[in-house]
Amino acid sequence: MKWLIRKLKTIWWRVKSVWAIRHYGNPSKKLKIVGVTGTNGKTTTATLLYRIALELGYKAGLVGTIENLINGEKLEIQSSTPVPGTTPDSITLTKLFSQMVKENCEYAFMEVSSHAIDQNRMWGINFTGGIFSNLTHDHLDYHKDMEDYFQTKKKFFKMLSTNAFALSNTDDEHGKKMLEGIKAKKFPYGFSAGEDFHGEIKKLDFDGLELAFNKTDIKSELLGKFNAYNLLSVWSACNLLGFDMQKVNKILENIKPPRGRFEHFTSRGGVLVIVDYAHTPDALEKVLSTIREIKSKESRLIAVFGCGGDRDPLKRFKMGRIGAALSDIPIFTSDNPRSEDPNKIIFDMKAELYPEDLKKVKTIPNRHEAILEAVKLAQSGDIILCAGKGHEDYQEIKGIRYPFDDMEKLKKAFS
User: Fold this and answer.
1) Which residues does the annotation place in the binding site for meso-2,6-diaminopimelate?
2) What is the pLDDT at residue 271?
3) What are this entry's molecular-function GO terms (predicted)?
4) pLDDT grade, residue 357 (50/70/90)?
5) What confidence score (pLDDT) does residue 17 get?
6) Nearest-CA neighbor of 225 among 171, 301, 305?
7) What is d(CA 128, CA 157) in angstroms, rounded to the nearest whole number?
8) Strand positions, DSSP E, 285-410
9) What is the pLDDT of residues 220-249, one digit of tens each?
10) What local confidence, expressed as pLDDT, does residue 312 receive?
11) How buried is 196 (Cβ within 10 angstroms: 0-12 exposed, 13-18 middle, 19+ buried)?
């Protein structure tokens, strides 16, 4: 039954895509559109490309998880997508592109979700290029398995024309396969060897990153190895778009992360506080590993996180294991429980913990109380990571969205 419903939805969205193009025309043909897909890194990559284009003096638009922007102006849109906060439906997309054309935009950068690909929401869009970041455990409440998830992402790259570029992270196990059998011009990037766009990490600490991309020195205030990959994909795309790379290199020195993506501040008492959207096993592991790589031996890492309700339950025990193993004080709490009991979600997170890790775990279902506990425990030099919600300014409980902003709660708790 689940697969029949998915198939019917796919047909319905394809019909809407066809209608949208015929009714509104195809404004995407007048724009240079770059789509970014993958499990993690979509928001950062698309947002940085958009900001760089504006800094270079181009008019540009952004279609993203956090916000939709045209030339710096935020747009409030009503989308009828079945999954809120992701790629808009085809009619909304067409309207967005039409408005970008009216505002004389030359470029558009957009996140491309697996749901949108599967449901043909992007049928008829003329992409200048596509970027693949990585593929890890996520959305298996929707996709049959990881192979189905991969093949859905691959459909986006098969959409690209012979004139488009396909930029893929070949350090990821799916990166090379993503480039196989497609029409677009293929460009691998990574930190291994032999890529068209090759990166090296020279320095990684809490002051930022020092990198070399194709032997060009790059500095950035962004933190962590995962951001080194994001920066390399952005730098590579800028090359392929023909941007002035001397100016791009300078812009990257001071560019800021999107809201809720490794966003951080230091309290007056000397506690480093990090808010990140990490809500998958891979993303949580990368964020925690990054912090552990660059923190001092004396610093304690306090991790506050949970798992979403009404979503893939198979990742809960994985996230529980990762969070418990890689933090000194793991605090299991609520994310967006939606219709589920938060205690049941936390029970699933703790189900397969090793005994030594289970002893460390604090269980506080109320997210606000969990944050207050983390602040109370933190001493000068410690690090608090609040993960899972990132930019979200609400918490969804029993069908109601209550105002809740992790960064706001943390700053208030330290004030």
Assistant:
1) 311, 335-338, 388, 392
2) 97
3) ATP binding; magnesium ion binding; UDP-N-acetylmuramoylalanyl-D-glutamate-2,6-diaminopimelate ligase activity
4) very high
5) 61
6) 171
7) 11
8) 301-305, 329-332, 362-363, 383-387, 394-397, 400-403
9) 999 999 999 999 999 999 999 999 999 999
10) 87
11) middle
Alpha-carbon radius of gyration of the chain? 21
Distances, alpha carbon 32 to alpha carbons 50, 90, 126, 394, in Å: 12, 18, 8, 34
- Report pLDDT for 68: 93
Domains of the chain: 2-254 (3.40.1190.10), 263-414 (3.90.190.20)
> 318 with 339: CB under 8 angstroms?
no
Tokens of 245: 């790379």
Q: Which of 182, 189, 231, 322 is nearest to 41 (CA)?
A: 231
Token pair 């952004």 in the structure block, residue: 62
What single DSSP character describes residue 338? B
Q: List phi, psi (to 5°) of 147.
A: -65, -40
- Region of 76 on the Ramachandran plot (φ > 0 left; ψ -120 to 50 alpha; else beta): beta
DSSP 7: H
pLDDT for residue 143 is more than 50: no
pLDDT at position 20 is 63
Cβ count within 10 A of residue 320? 29
pLDDT band (50, 70, 90) for residue 146: confident
Query: Which amino acid does the sequence have at 314?
Result: L
Query: For 17-58, how does the pLDDT look when each residue is reduced to its tens digit (9 = 90+)?
Result: 666 666 666 788 899 999 999 988 899 999 999 999 999 999
Distance (Å, rounded) from C-alpha 310 to C-alpha 141? 9
| Amino acid sitting at position 260 | G
The answer, yes or no, to whether residue 165 has pLDDT greater than 80, is yes
Q: What does each C-alpha distance from 62 to 34, 110, 275, 365 come to in angstroms? A: 10, 6, 23, 36
Binding residue numbers: 38-44, 86-87, 113, 119, 121, 311, 335-338, 388, 392
Tokens found for residue 409 = 């709660």
- Listed in sequence order, the residues at least 6 apart from 249 whose beta carbon sits closer than 8 Å to its beta carbon are 216, 218
Q: Which residues are annotated as a binding site for ATP?
A: 38-44
For the residues of 228-296, what is the DSSP string, one character each?
A: HHHHHHHHHHHHHTT--HHHHHHHHHHPPPPTTSSEEEE-TTS-EEEEE---SHHHHHHHHHHHHHHS-
What are 103-133's pLDDT values in tens digits? 999 999 999 987 788 877 777 889 999 999 9
